[in-house]
Structures are given as C-alpha cells and as structure tokens.
Amino acid sequence: MADNVRELRPKPPDTEKITINLGYVDLGQVDLMVQEGFYSNRTDFIRTAIRNQLERHGDVVKQSTARKSLDLGLRNYTRQDLEAAQRAGEMLHINVLGLATIDHDVTPDLARATIASVSVLGALHATPAVKAALADRTR
C-alpha cells in the first residue's frame, strides 16, 4: 500500500499576510461598516479599499510596469530554467510585480551563478538559503 503513496509539494498560499496599524477611530468606523452589513469583515473592507485605490491609479501602475520592464503576475524559476541559463552563460534579472518563486530544489550556488539581480514588488518565495545567497543582489 505504501508503494502508491506520493508526497506532494505543498501549495504556496495565494495571498501574502500584511500587518497595518490603524487609529482607534478609523478602526471603529471600519467595524461600524461591517456591523451595518456593507462588508463581511475587516479584511473585506481593507481589500476593497486597496482594490479601489489600485483601480484609481491603474494608469500609473501600467505606465510604471512598462517603464521598469516588470513581469506582471506570477513568475516561477525552476532548477531547469537556471541550469539552462548557466549552460548558455546567461545571467537572469528577475523583475516581477506580483509573486516570484524560485523552486525549492534550486541550490544557493546555482542561484548565485545564474541570478544577477532580484527586484520583486509583491512577494518572493524561495528557500531561506537561496534568499540569503541572493541578499546582496536583491533590491
């Protein structure tokens, strides 16, 4: 029976947790909006407010994304991607607005040999060892 059991790689979360400090009056107003049924909870209120601000400034985001040559969304770097870059003698410049992931089987040495710079607006998921190896190349 144990022969047909495979361990699956855990799925990364779809969101990143952030913490904010909010004044008591502002927090009370958020709670009032939730209590009155405008929002299901505090998180729903905050997400809606953030989305509204992002939509309001959508043109600026699009222009900046294009100007800075950012990959928008999710970008995954596999061991095979990095090994191919190494064979080609290329260095990668990771520029992502969203989520950048470097697979768990990428070694710190391979990452340093193939990644010249890392700029992520959002979240970078990689092993602690790879993050440490790229710390001086991350802005």
From TrEMBL:
GO biological process: regulation of DNA-templated transcription
CDD domains membership: RHH_NikR_HicB-like (cd22231)
Domain of life: Bacteria
Database matches in InterPro entries: Arc_rbn_hlx_hlx (IPR013321), RHH_8 (IPR041088), Ribbon_hlx_hlx (IPR010985)
Gene3D superfamilies: Met repressor-like
Pfam families: RHH_8
Protein name, UniProt field: Arc/MetJ-type ribon-helix-helix transcriptional regulator
